[in-house]
Sequence to fold (618 residues):
Amino acid sequence: MSAHADDPNDRQQAFAQAAEQYKVPESVLLGVSYLESRWDAHAGMPSNDAGFGPMHLTDAAAFTGGNHHAEGEEDARGDESRPLAVPTQTAQTQEIPASLRTMEKAAELTGESHETLRTDPAANIRGGAALLADYQKALGAPLSDDPGQWYGAVAKYSGATEESAAKFFADEVYDTIKQGVTRKTDDGQQVSLRPVPGVERIIRWLEDLGLLHPRTDGVECPPTISCEWIPSGYAQLPDDDYGHYDLGNRPVSQKIDYIVIHDMEGYFKPSIDLNKDPNYGASWQYSVRSTDGHIAQHIKAKDVAWQAGNWYINSKSIGIEHEGFLAEGSTWYTEAMYRASAKLVRYLAFRNAIPLDRAHIIGHDNVPGTLPTTVRGMHEDPGPFWDWAHYFELMGAPFHPFGGPNSGSVMIKPDFATNKPYFYGCDRKNPSKDCPPTSASTVWLRTEPRADAPLIKDIGKHPTGGSLYSVYDHSARATTGQRFAVAGRQGDWTAIWYLGQKSWFYNPASNPTAIPSMGLVVTPKPGLATIPVYGRAYPEQEAYPANIPYQPVTPLQYTFSAGEKYTLAGAAPAEYFRAVTFTPEEHTVVKGKTKYYEIQFGHRVMFVKADDVQVSWS
Fold:
């Protein structure tokens, strides 16, 4: 019996029937599916090398690929005093791991075709149940009604080769079973897992899986997640070159203010191999695996990775890469990945006193260009399908309204499950093709308060043209958690100040896409018609010692005019980390007296000088 989205009870029924057919406790089947997909079907989203359906059955036909740092024009280091070419090296073809081939076994066990397992949620659920039962039998464990007896099979379902990763996945499943959960899926299905408060975990079955115990050489991770140490490559190269990060002494030398969220645009193992190669011109501190949330740390927090394309941000941030693809969104951004990553970010934020907000926990797509010439080439990941609201809920820092309906500032917060704006470009083989309707965390911004009005323009991203509806173009989008000053209201529409423009988005009271968010805003001081905005907060020339070249403070191409307001994220110290040598003895942090503020100027954060603005409450 196939499940159909027009009957809200079918998904629940499909779990019950599959559980009965394969003698798997329904709570176990629901718990595993929730950790993989939150019960979503992702209709039309997966390609033949992603995970499919509520059980995230994997069918990776080609386990190849590199990393998003090898695409586009962005210099991952983002420092013109030591510019790097865009990396061109890609990982070699790898053997496809079992964790990315589970659909083959599910097809064998159920007799269903790959196409049916991909597109029919009920068949997909049966495939997952068949896999769990097969894993249980292989362990010699009973097909018991007791969920605790299935701990080993659940751990096996993670696909992890490391015992700590398999245990993390299983523990998260059993925590979900214990607490229970109810959710409406991306295709309107109401699914519930009733709490089983007395559920036990027969952990001894985990020992029979014979999994690995990876290196944990002083990893900087919370103890509740699976984390191993796989060091990034660091070596002296010919012609006074070196790669591919910089030794530092943070937070003694300078405070860490940001955590940057990336997606790999590739697979876990090949991306890690690139990070291990000092010849590759990009690096990052952590990698997170999609299937089970396993984390590899490559660079200590004290050192500076070449990851965000902006040297000021790099020198004050930690970069976390997530296995997956921007355009395939939730098929790769699994619940297991979200949970592990959220625990890591919360841990790092508390250790480094980083605010848990969207001005400091930022996407790569929120990092500004350093100069007018670099704005256009900056990267777009993790993209519109990253669920920022859920991510912050998992961190224990959910987005709440603050203020009344007419507050002077708003926070973007559409309902992720039902917000499915139009995009094209998800199919790289046919980039002009429309994307299937997909849950997203963004809203489109228009020049007037009507649905057919043009998108607002980003002169940095598109100097001579308009913004695009492409999934790879953020130019006219505001994203969940970002705060903006209100520029007007008209009926169901709200306007915000964005890149020097009054920008309208649909925000009906019956289904709001933003919440009140009063706070501090900045506007040009009286008498100033316009003020500059910057992509980095560098010191004034007088702050530089004689042996360190002055780094010019160059405004970006945008205009911040009198009468406009932008939300204030906080002070940004005037600093420049001079690091152009392999050995750290000559590495220096130049600290200036100029005061900067970080503001939400557009999709990307930017900076203004404190002397140019006045601060008020709005």
Observations:
- The two ends are 55 Å apart (CA to CA).
- Confidence is low (pLDDT under 50) at residues 1-6.
- The chain has twelve helices and 28 strands.
- Residues 524-617 form one domain.
